[in-house]
Amino acid sequence: MIHNIESDLNRFKQIVKGRVRKDLKRFMSNGELIGRQGGKVVSIPLPQIGLPRFRYGKNDQGGVGQGEGEDGDPVDGEPGDGHGHAGDNPGEHMLEAEISIEELAEIIGDELQLPRIEPKGAKEISSERDRYTGISRVGPEALRHNRRTYREALKRQVASGAYNPHKPVIVPIKDDRRYRTWNTQSQPQSAAVILYMMDVSGSMGNEQKEIVRLEAFWIDAWLRHNYKNVETRYIIHDAAAREVPRDIFFRTKESGGTLISSAYTLCLKIIEADYPADLWNIYPFHFSDGDNWSSSDTRLSLDLVEKHLLPASNQFSYGQVDSEYGSGQFFKDLGERFGSEDKVVRSRIPDREGIMNSIRDFLGKGR
Questions:
Q1: 75-83 long-range contacts, Cβ below 8 Å, gap at least 24?
Q2: C-alpha 348: how far from chain center
Q3: Are residues 337 and 351 in the same domain?
Q4: Residues 98 and 199 in one domain
């Protein structure tokens, strides 16, 4: 019975994964997964998977619901007239199925053909972890190994002739008890930090910010699949930059001009203060509609990327979200300065439908 249940569960999981693969582009563009995100899993709506149901055959012997009562009698004291009316609209049969972030990241990688990331250099930190390595005759009851204890009791009873196969009662005694033992081991743990920067000047509207929110979710999912320890920092900027919590990052409404260098300067300060380049894999992502206040600030911004951000980072990524009011000039400026630099990745995001291709642009080189 247990084997059949596990088999059915595995088959259902494959159905869920198949549905996610089929509708991945839709999920990536409309935020259905993000809205149902939990700690380590997300719940997704699967409207076309039929729920199991009982099918009844003929029953001439009576059964449940055959007692006293007439149509319209109140149930649990609730009044009723017994004259309900049938509806004329189909019901919405929606099933919420959970899938782990890890499984979701695997699906993303497979569908977008993303290579696994190899952490560069010696950028690893170590964490201590207790690992069970053996069995002992003494130890705390919380670490008692029940299967080993049962096995020892069975061996003792068989050897002494006390075991009765027709009445198999196994009673462990003190000498039968076995306990897990452990050692504390130092385990290398790859570390990464994602630094999101977003232009929140007047030309970046709610739709542009929603596109950034969706894309950031998928970037997070893939990088967390590749690294054991991932931190995320958020910077918003118009003519000045400041660090904010995640929820403020996606909800802030600003106006005024744009100085891209202000975001890059703050990003560099955060890296230098908290994320030494010899210990962390560093991923700056900047999202904007391409406007900047002046050509002089553009030159300063490009210098900051070339001389400071790029040497410290695995990759510098710039996503340009199309806006009715944005010129898109900074995309061109980056291309002119870093056209042959593989570590600088640019991506145009015309609308929500472009998120999938943009993710492939950013993560497709495996850095």
A1: none
A2: 24
A3: yes
A4: no
Residue that the structure tokens 């509708």 belong to: 23
- Does 123 map to a domain? no
Neighbour count for residue 191 (Cβ, 10 Å) = 21
Query: What token pair was written down for 212?
Result: 């950034």
| Cβ pair 159, 129 in contact under 8 A | no
Q: What are the C-alpha distances in Å from 82 to residues 69, 74, 75, 236?
A: 12, 9, 11, 61
| Residue from 165, 210, 169 nearest 34 by CA | 210
Domain assignment of residue 277, yes or no = yes
Place of tokens 């959970």: 98
Tell me what the pLDDT averaged over the chain comes to.
Answer: 80
**Does some domain include residue 71?**
no
Per-residue pLDDT band for 351 (boundaries 50, 70, 90) equals very high
Which residue type sits at 147? Answer: R
Say what the pLDDT of residue 12 is. 61
Which residues, 6 or more positions from 121, have their beta carbon under 8 angstroms from its beta carbon? 278
Distance CA 322, CA 276 (A): 34
| Residue given tokens 């009723």 in the structure block | 80
Task: Work out the average pLDDT over 315-332.
Answer: 90
Query: β-strand 96-100 against 229-237: which pairing, if any?
Result: unpaired
Instruction: Tell me if the pTM is above 0.85.
Output: no
Does residue 68 lie within any of the structural domains? no
Query: Pick from 185, 200, 218: which residue ends a domain?
Result: 185
Contact status, residue 285 vs residue 195, Cβ threshold 8 Å: yes
